[in-house]
């Protein structure tokens, strides 16, 4: 498993996985292109042997108290091996590095594996959005994580938010990294 910051060159592979993972409510290519290019977030890809097996994104404005996990997707044949957890932790470390105090996300009510992952990382259910996922009429479970508590439990030191310069790569867990 190799995690790195996504680039525009990853967009075609991300879109293939997006459509395979979320066939009824996939994001559009222009939406994901804008997300990858945004200075207010970070998309990370999981690549093995030159093949993209997962990706995830966090929207975390530098210095803002709140951040949002935008999406996480793992190829069906690569699930159950810790890749989703690794992506999630990388995104949470990015939010921590940028100064977020809380991270929010929505997860489909019919996705117990994802809900269990988020719960195991310390997310708590704070609400529900009825029929949020369309056209499937599936509720969204809204979850929230206390970022300083999450980081402290993993021995990740507090980090002062900073301005982003040239794009970096590699893991930010426990290091200055991407931020």
UniProtKB/TrEMBL annotation:
Descriptive protein name: Ribosomal protein S18-alanine N-acetyltransferase
Matches recorded under Gene3D superfamilies: 3.40.630.30
NCBIfam families in UniProt: rimI (TIGR01575)
Domain N-acetyltransferase intervals: 1-148
Entry EC number(s): 2.3.1.266
Catalytic EC class: transferase
Keywords recorded for this protein, A-Z: Acyltransferase, Ribonucleoprotein, Ribosomal protein, Transferase
Annotated InterPro entries: AcTrfase_RimI/Ard1 (IPR006464), Acyl_CoA_acyltransferase (IPR016181), Bact_Acetyltransf (IPR050832), GNAT_dom (IPR000182)
GO cellular component term, pick one: ribosome
Naturally occurring in which organism (per UniProt): Microbacterium dauci
Matches recorded under SUPFAM superfamilies: Acyl-CoA N-acyltransferases (Nat)
GO molecular function annotations of the record: protein-N-terminal-alanine acetyltransferase activity
Keyword Hydrolase: no
Keyword Acyltransferase (UniProt): yes
